[in-house]
């Protein structure tokens, strides 16, 4: 029994380390991820031999069916792709390799306390990354800092996905959480990291989450939300104090002189034509960008974007309206899974998806392994803690 508990604990620790290191080094992150999977499989096999059975609650089963439906809707675009080996490999990596995060979190023989520790450790690490990112910007004077990783867009999605949990759990007085005030500090550092990276999509994702959290806090008459709003106001003051950051904030709605925005719009216009040309199964997984550059791009797109910086448009171009339908079903199922927002963990899961989907309107977050695994990690933790609290 003790060895069984240890294996589950080691697997959870390896998974948490994988989440923390995946943006620093893909190789290191994958090593920890692989270790977590191996330990999980050994643990499950040993428990099965002891006669233990595994069950999922009906609502969780329905969620996996929704994901299976999504996977099936993408399969034709992998098999009918002009580059089948490439597209099918990407399909297996994205649809099979990443989802393993959820079974690990759902089936490990660990208690609620261990899941909370893993979640809090991950939030603390993202906060430390935020501190490093903001510190790098102050020290180097660079307009955009990288922090502990090398991808601004990955950082944006991860930040928008993790940030809501920090303030939601801090706001819950009734929930027993160690180092509660540290969560508010973490939230501030995460926001500073988003400011330091200068990634506007993360700013939008954070802002949308704060609106939802504020609305729920007002409904519950939780006065602690005032502190969150004051902290957010201070972050706007930090942006206003920097001409470069102020320019980036004002450029969010600029689709003319700001070519980062304008080129996206031009690509989206042509994406509509591409969807009309191949409406059912699309151009093939990750083939839409190639077809766009070869046959659809106009001079108005000054950068020559390799993808459409939008998970919905990219899915529709790559996998057709069938794939877009599958994505919509999975997203809807995810929100439905966490519909009981009066539960703080359900609300954290709900807002994690809000943040991811919001950033996904401006960046192709589904193509970023670290971003999707982070989303699934937050989903799994929220689901375990939500169901544990309800039971």
From TrEMBL:
Q: Which UniProt keywords apply?
A: Ligase, Membrane, Transmembrane, Transmembrane helix
GO CC, sorted alphabetically, is:
membrane
Ranges where the O-antigen ligase-related domain occurs: 186-327
Q: How does it sit in the membrane?
A: Multi-pass membrane protein
Q: Where in the cell is it found?
A: Membrane
Instruction: Spell out the coiled coil positions from the record.
Output: none
The residues the entry assigns to the signal sequence are none
For this protein, the record's Pfam families field holds: Wzy_C (PF04932)
Q: What parts of the sequence cross the membrane?
A: 30-46, 62-79, 91-108, 120-140, 152-171, 183-213, 225-245, 320-338, 344-366
Q: Which GO terms describe its molecular function?
A: ligase activity
Superkingdom of the source?
Bacteria
Protein name as it appears in the record: O-antigen ligase family protein
Organism equals Acidaminococcus intestini
């Amino acid at each position: 029994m003790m060895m069984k508990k240890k294996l589950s604990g080691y697997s959870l620790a390896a998974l948490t380390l994988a989440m923390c290191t995946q943006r620093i080094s893909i190789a290191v992150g994958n090593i920890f991820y692989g270790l977590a999977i191996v330990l999980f499989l050994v643990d499950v096999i040993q428990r099965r031999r002891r006669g233990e059975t595994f069950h999922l609650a009906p609502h969780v089963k329905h969620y996996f069916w929704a994901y299976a439906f999504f996977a099936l809707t993408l399969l034709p675009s992998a098999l009918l792709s002009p580059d089948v080996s490439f597209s099918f490999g990407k399909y297996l990596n994205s649809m099979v390799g990443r989802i393993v995060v959820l079974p690990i979190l759902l089936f490990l023989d660990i208690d609620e306390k261990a899941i909370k520790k893993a979640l809090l450790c991950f939030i603390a690490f993202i906060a430390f990354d935020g501190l490093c990112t903001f510190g790098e910007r102050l020290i180097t004077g660079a307009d955009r800092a990288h922090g502990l990783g090398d991808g601004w867009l990955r950082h944006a999605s991860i930040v928008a996905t993790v940030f809501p949990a920090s303030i939601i759990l801090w706001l819950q007085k009734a929930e027993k959480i160690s180092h509660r005030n540290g969560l508010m500090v973490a939230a501030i550092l995460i926001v500073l990291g988003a400011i330091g990276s200068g990634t506007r999509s993360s700013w939008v994702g954070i802002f949308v989450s704060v609106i939802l959290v504020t609305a729920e806090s007002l409904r519950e008459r939780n006065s602690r939300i005032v502190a969150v709003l004051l902290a957010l106001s201070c972050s706007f003051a930090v942006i206003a104090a920097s001409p470069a950051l102020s320019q980036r904030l004002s450029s969010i709605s600029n689709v003319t002189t700001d070519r980062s925005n304008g080129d996206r719009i031009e690509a989206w216009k042509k994406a509509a034509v591409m969807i009309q040309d191949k409406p059912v199964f699309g151009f093939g997984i990750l083939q839409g960008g190639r077809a766009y550059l070869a046959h659809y791009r106009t001079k108005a797109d000054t950068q020559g974007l390799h993808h459409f910086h939008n998970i919905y448009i990219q899915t529709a171009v790559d996998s057709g309206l069938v794939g877009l339908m599958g994505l919509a079903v999975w997203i809807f199922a995810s929100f439905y899974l966490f519909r009981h927002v009066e539960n703080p963990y359900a609300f954290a899961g709900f807002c994690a998806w809000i943040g991811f989907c919001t950033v996904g309107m401006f960046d192709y977050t589904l193509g970023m392994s670290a971003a999707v695994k982070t989303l699934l990690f937050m989903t799994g933790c929220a689901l375990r803690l939500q169901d544990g609290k309800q039971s």
